[in-house]
Amino acid sequence: MKFSGKNVLITGASRGIGADIARVLASMGLKVWINYRSKPELADALLEEIRAGGGEGAVVKFDATNEAEFIEAINAIIQSDGELSYLVNNAGITNDKLALRMKLEDFTGVINANLTSAFIGSREALKVMSKKRFGAVVNIASIVGEMGNAGQVNYSASKGGMIAMSKSFAKEGASRGVRFNCVTPGFIATDMTDALSDEVRASYEANIPLKRFGNASDVAHGVAFLLSDYASYITGDVLKINGGLYM
Predict the structure, then answer these.
(1) DSSP letters along 103-169, please?
(2) How far apart are CA 125 and CA 225, in angstroms?
(3) For residues 185 and 49, what is the distance between their CA atoms, to the nearest angstrom?
(4) What is the domain count for the chain?
């Protein structure tokens, strides 16, 4: 991949998909800023792994839902590196239950963690990237933001809102040289899916045209493409990474 910028901030990057995004982008020559909210040992271990592989990185602790902390972190990155070239809004949570049993705080908690955090990051990235008339943001949405899912009214709303929000940011950022895109992962192999029984996993895979779950690296390489110069004419778009499950 070819990049004109030099660094990237990835929220929620200490584990799972976020960690693989950090690994891939570091292997492509970007300095990766690994954000975490808790469990510093995971972030530190990832940083050590990246450096051992010849990559460059740093760890930054903040709660992505906290506006002041997010802004302070971005300012620290700029003070260190002179710029923020790319942002990946990956931080998020789930709190699944049927809508009839979902309390308001169950709904707003997920909206705040997933959508509000991405808004704060996207807004602040647009501010700082506009000064150099260059930058790119990728928001990690989800297939359920496109097709919905029973038991995930809150998560679906947060990810569907993220898609619409990204398109609006793309319209505002285009004249300033800042691009905004989303990826929408389908079933991705994680610690959570590893706990599924063989029977349940097989039933899910039967509905996927490619007949398998994706890997975190599949998502990471999609993110890398959208950030890279090879996607310099792509903004306001959604890259589906779901094995054909939702076409």
Answers:
(1) -HHHHHHHIIIIIIHHHHHHHHHHHHHHTTT-EEEEEE--THHHH--TT-HHHHHHHHHHHHHHHHH
(2) 19
(3) 25
(4) 1
204 within 8 A of 192, measured Cβ to Cβ: no
Q: Which residues fall within 8 angstroms of residue 151, CB to CB, at 6 or more apart?
A: 96, 97, 98
CB 41 within 8 A of CB 66: no
Rounded Cα distance between 155 and 216, Å, is: 19
pLDDT in tens, 106-161: 999 999 999 999 999 999 999 999 999 999 999 999 999 999 999 999 999 999 99
The CATH number for 45's domain is 3.40.50.720
Cα–Cα nearest to 65, from 117, 123, 9 = 117
In a domain, 244, yes or no: no
Instruction: Indicate whether this model's pTM tops 0.70.
Output: yes
**Cα(117)–Cα(5) distance, integer angstroms:** 23
Domain range spanning residue 223?
A: 7-238
Residue 2 belongs to a domain: no
- Residue 74 CA to residue 79 CA, distance in Å, equals 9
Q: Which residues are catalytic?
A: 155
Q: Locate tokens 């975490």: which residue?
A: 36
CA distance 237 to 127: 21
Decide if 243 is inside a domain.
no
Six-digit token pair at 227?
């950030």
What does the pLDDT look like over 146-157, one tens digit per residue?
A: 999 999 999 999
Contacts of 39 (CB under 8 A, 6+ apart): 14, 15
Has residue 247 been placed in a domain?
no
Which residues are 240's β-sheet partners? 184
